[in-house]
C-alpha cells in the first residue's frame, strides 16, 4: 500500500514538475520530496521522473502510473469530503432565494464554491419578487435570502453580512423633467407620485419610500406594485416614479423609463439573511462560502455583461464600489 505522502508527492510533482514548488504546496522540504520519490521508484521498479539541472519531466512509466493513480486518489478525496460533510450535517437540500437579478451571478459563484466543498448537499436557488422572497423565508420555504436589508425589521429575520452595495437611483418616465438630469435629490420625491412595493408594513417602506422629503414637503402617493415588470409598466405610462439600485438599468432598461442616480442618498445594501434561530451548520457553511467569493472577487467595471460581473481580485469593500 502507498503512504499518503507518497501519493501526494508523486501527483503534485507530476503536476508542478518542480521539486521546490511541490514541497511548498505540501509544506515539507524539497529533500523530503526527493527522498519520497526515490523510495517510490525503488518500490515500483523504475524511474518515474527524468531529472536534469533545468527541468523535471515524467517518464513513460511515470505517465502510466499517474493515469492509473489519479482517479483512485480523487475518489479517496471525494469520499473524505463527503464523509466530513455528512458528519457536519451538510447533506440534503439548501434553498436560497434572491430578489434582484444583479445578485444572481454572485449567488451562482457561491453555489459553485459551496458545492466544491460539500457535494452531498444540493442547493436550489429561486429568484422571487420582494414580498414573496421575504414571506418564503419567514415561512421556511427557503433557508437563506440575498435581499435588500431595509425590508426587514430584524424581529424574525437575522440580517447577516452585506455582500453587495449599489448606488440608489430614481426610475422616472423617459419624458419626465427629471430624466434629463445627471443626478437627482431626495427632495425630488415631491415632484411625482412614488410607486411603492406591495406587501410590506408602512414602517419598513417609510425608510426608503418616504411620505415626506427631508425638508417636510409631502410626497405624492402612487400605485402599489408587486413585481418589476408591473412597476416599470406603471412608470412608463407616467403613473409615478420609484427607487431601485442603479444596477437595474442593466437588467430592465426600457425606452419609456430612465434610471437617474441620487447624489444625496445612501447606497442600497444587499445582505445574506436567514430566519432567526435557524442558522444551521449548512446555512453557516453557505454564508462562509459566499463571503469567500466576495472577498476573492471584485466587480469588473469594464465588463460588457449585464449587471455585476464577479472576477478575480479585490475584496468585500471593492464589491461595494
What Rg do the Cα atoms give?
A: 27 Å
Low-pLDDT windows of residues: 299-321
Number of domains: 3
Please report the first level of CATH classification, the CATH class of the largest domain: Alpha Beta
Strand order of the largest sheet: 4-3-5-12-6
CATH architecture of the largest domain: 3-Layer(aba) Sandwich
Largest sheet: 5 strands, mixed
Secondary structure: helix percent: 25-40%
Overall pLDDT confidence: 85
Domain HTH lysR-type: 1-59
Pfam family, one: LysR_substrate
Family: Belongs to the LysR transcriptional regulatory family.
Keywords: DNA-binding, Transcription, Transcription regulation
Plain-language structure description:
The longest helix has 28 residues, at 60-87. The relative contact order is 0.14. The protein is α/β, with parallel strands linked by helices and 321 residues long. Strand 3, helix 5 (104-117) and strand 4 (121-127) form a beta-alpha-beta unit. The protein has helices spanning 4-16, 19-26, 30-44, 60-87, 104-117, 130-139, 202-205, 228-236, 248-251, 281-296, 316-320; strands spanning 49-51, 56-58, 92-98, 121-127, 144-148, 157-166, 168-173, 194-197, 221-225, 242-245, 257-261, 268-275, 297-299, 310-312. The chain is elongated, with a radius of gyration of 27 Å. Helix content is 39%, strand content 23%. Residues 310-321 have a biased composition (Gly residues).
Write the layout of secondary structure elements.
Blueprint: H1 4-16, H2 19-26, H3 30-44, E1 49-51, E2 56-58, H4 60-87, E3 92-98, H5 104-117, E4 121-127, H6 130-139, E5 144-148, E6 157-166, E7 168-173, E8 194-197, H7 202-205, E9 221-225, H8 228-236, E10 242-245, H9 248-251, E11 257-261, E12 268-275, H10 281-296, E13 297-299, E14 310-312, H11 316-320
Parallel strand pairs: 3-4, 3-5, 8-9
Antiparallel strand pairs: 1-2, 5-12, 6-12, 7-10, 7-11, 13-14
Amino acid at each position: 500500500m502507498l503512504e499518503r505522502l507518497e501519493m501526494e508527492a508523486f501527483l503534485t510533482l507530476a503536476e508542478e514538475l518542480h521539486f521546490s514548488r511541490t514541497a511548498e504546496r505540501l509544506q515539507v522540504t524539497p529533500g523530503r520530496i526527493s527522498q519520497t520519490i526515490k523510495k517510490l521508484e525503488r518500490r515500483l521498479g523504475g524511474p518515474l521522473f527524468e531529472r536534469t539541472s533545468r527541468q523535471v519531466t515524467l517518464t513513460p512509466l511515470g505517465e502510466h502510473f499517474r493515469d492509473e493513480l489519479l482517479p483512485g486518489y480523487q475518489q479517496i478525496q471525494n469520499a473524505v469530503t463527503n464523509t466530513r460533510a455528512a458528519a457536519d450535517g451538510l447533506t440534503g437540500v439548501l434553498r436560497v432565494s434572491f430578489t434582484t437579478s444583479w445578485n444572481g451571478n454572485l449567488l451562482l459563484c457561491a453555489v459553485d464554491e459551496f458545492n466544491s466543498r460539500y457535494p452531498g448537499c444540493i442547493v436550489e436557488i429561486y429568484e422571487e419578487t420582494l414580498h414573496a422572497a421575504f414571506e418564503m423565508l419567514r415561512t421556511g420555504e427557503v433557508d437563506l435570502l440575498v435581499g435588500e436589508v431595509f425590508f426587514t425589521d430584524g424581529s424574525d429575520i437575522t440580517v447577516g453580512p452585506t455582500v453587495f452595495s449599489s448606488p440608489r437611483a430614481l426610475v422616472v418616465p423617459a419624458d419626465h423633467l427629471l430624466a434629463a438630469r445627471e443626478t437627482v435629490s431626495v427632495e425630488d420625491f415631491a415632484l411625482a407620485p412614488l410607486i411603492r412595493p406591495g406587501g410590506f408594513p408602512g414602517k419598513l417602506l417609510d425608510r426608503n419610500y418616504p411620505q415626506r422629503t427631508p425638508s417636510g414637503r409631502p410626497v405624492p402617493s402612487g400605485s402599489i406594485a408587486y413585481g418589476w415588470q408591473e412597476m416599470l409598466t406603471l412608470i412608463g405610462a407616467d403613473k409615478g416614479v420609484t427607487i431601485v439600485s442603479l444596477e437595474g438599468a442593466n437588467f430592465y432598461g426600457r425606452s419609456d423609463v430612465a434610471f437617474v442616480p441620487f447624489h444625496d442618498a445612501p447606497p442600497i445594501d444587499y445582505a445574506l439573511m436567514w430566519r432567526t434561530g435557524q442558522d444551521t451548520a449548512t446555512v453557516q457553511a453557505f454564508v462562509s462560502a459566499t463571503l469567500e467569493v466576495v472577498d476573492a472577487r471584485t466587480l469588473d467595471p469594464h465588463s460588457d455583461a449585464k449587471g455585476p460581473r464577479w472576477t478575480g481580485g479585490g475584496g468585500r469593500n471593492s464589491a461595494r464600489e
